[in-house]
């Protein structure tokens, strides 16, 4: 699969703007006008297009980082501008028209998509990302032990929050809005380990590599891990997307972006130690390259459209069940409308 993705997506040449030579004929003015019109008709509307891509600096964004570092965007003939975004602002940037494409946690996209977020998912990129941590002497060993407890999260829309709710709900713990058996409390990401240490919460849900770093530095126990625990370890967490207008008006730009991201993701799968080194060395990601590489090795970076589509269909009804998605949302229609199959993509 990896070899197919890397080799199958070759660079594409941009059509020339050069007008066709006109036949000699009387009237130089008429000949020039004909030549000019012909050139305009053959001009490539995508030739000077610059795709604005949002990024946040997370470890799992490795395909985006490597698409730049290893020239996968360049191979596709795609001109890009990377726009650094503050944590949690990706969808605001889409709505404001600041970015044309990006990389996002799939579960966190479902509710915004139901509210009209104007994007199309083009491929899934990898599994993993989320962990739930507790103190080693907490007495919490199973989902049922969370009943009556508080869980710290960075926001009520973040992927770790959704993941924690999914695990608890899947194991019979009530996490609906009505009569919930577990309380979720918001803290800044940096303050979550301290909140757990001070007893303000009984557990915390975090993204990697922050979760792994917090576990090591504070001697915490990982009780749920989406990269390792069944059935979540095989469920794709992150995906590539483009704005609806890009998919509609510039489908080849969207396809070039998708191919580059797929090739980069496949390359990450085979070179995780090097990826972690490049990310830290070139300041894409903070942290220790060795630790980051260990985390990356728990993720599956084989890109898959079908797997992303499949997990959307699993998570959306779960969010509806726990009250995070309106009950009147047609989840099947939402799933179908949120994805797009582009031409000349080695889909799996």
Automatic annotation (TrEMBL):
Comp. bias (Polar residues): 9-20, 31-41
Domain Solute-binding protein family 3/N-terminal: 50-275
Annotated family: Belongs to the bacterial solute-binding protein SsuA/TauA family.
Stretches for region Disordered: 9-44
Protein name: ABC transporter substrate-binding protein
Highest rank taxon of the organism: Bacteria
